[in-house]
Specification:
By secondary structure, this protein is an all-alpha fold. The protein has one domain. Helix content is 63%, strand content 2%. A two-stranded antiparallel ribbon has the order 1-2. α2 runs parallel beside α9. The longest helix is centred in the C-terminal third of the chain and has 28 residues.
């Protein structure tokens, strides 16, 4: 049995949609390229990189927004898209569609909850980057839901990964929340300086929250079993690997005694 037929036992056939087919390729290429740029120092201007970017006049003159407001803008549209699909499209869809929509809604609701009640902030965000990332999340979420809708009436994949996917998603979202809590606990109220993260998997990797975010999307992909979901997850993985490499480099530049054996995102490997 060749690779294509093996994949088709796990995935729905590609949908008869030029739009989704094109967006699958474009999204994967864009995320992979963004990850490559991160490793080369061309970082998206949010989090710690919003304050460590170039001090050129062009960078200094860019419009800024508070980190908290920027993060709300990042995640709210995608959350609302998932919420709309979960409550207004459910009557015409199957259980897999409902699970995908619910998982995406929970994922972005958790993000908004963390922005409002967990994270502590130390700087600002580039407005241009904020809008670009927010649109990316919104479009990707809507496309994943639409791609799932297009499977309506298709025969189910031979191997059903819904239950496995739900378990992986739960591990991913809880692990991500826990490590975000550890990050926020590094600072007392009013503190703004960065510290070396400790606890959980932070003792092994710089970005365990990225690792669990990847697991969350792997879970959603297994629930979905569409080409778009899997390619989006692969692209997201490449991007977060690049971002974690850049983050590890940043910590080494800021802290003389940062542990040199701490990996970027995968314990003991990468």
């Amino acid at each position: 049995m060749g690779i294509p037929s093996t994949l088709l036992s796990f995935l729905y056939p590609p949908p008869p949609s030029i739009y989704i087919t094109a967006m699958t390729v474009i999204n994967f290429a864009a995320l992979g390229n963004a990850g490559l740029k991160e490793t080369r120092g061309k970082n998206m201007q949010y989090s710690k990189f919003s304050t460590s970017s170039s001090s050129s006049s062009a960078a200094m003159n860019k419009a800024k927004i508070s980190s908290k407001s920027g993060m709300v803008i990042l995640y709210t549209p995608a959350f609302l898209a998932g919420l709309f699909a979960s409550f207004w499209m459910v009557p015409d869809e199957d259980s897999r569609f409902c699970l995908v929509s619910a998982a995406l809604t929970i994922h972005f609701f958790k993000r908004v909850f963390e922005v409002l009640f967990v994270h502590k902030y130390s700087g600002s965000m580039d407005v241009e980057a904020t809008i670009a990332i927010s649109l990316s999340y919104l479009i990707s979420t809507a496309n994943m839901i639409y791609a799932q809708h297009l499977t309506h009436g298709f025969p189910e994949p031979q191997v059903d990964l819904k239950t496995v996917g739900a378990g992986i998603f739960l591990i991913g979202i809880l692990g991500n929340l826990y490590h975000h809590y550890l990050l926020s606990s590094l600072r007392t109220e009013g503190e703004k300086q960065y510290k070396i993260p400790q606890g959980g998997l932070f003792n092994l990797v710089v970005c365990p929250h990225y690792l669990f975010e990847v697991l969350g999307f792997v879970g959603i992909s297994c629930i979905s079993q569409t080409w778009y979901a899997f390619m989006f997850t692969l692209g997201t993985t490449l991007y977060l690997m690049g971002r974690s490499v850049a983050t590890r480099r940043w910590y080494h530049s800021k802290f003389e005694h940062f542990p040199k054996d701490r990996k970027a995102i995968i314990p003991y490997l990468f």
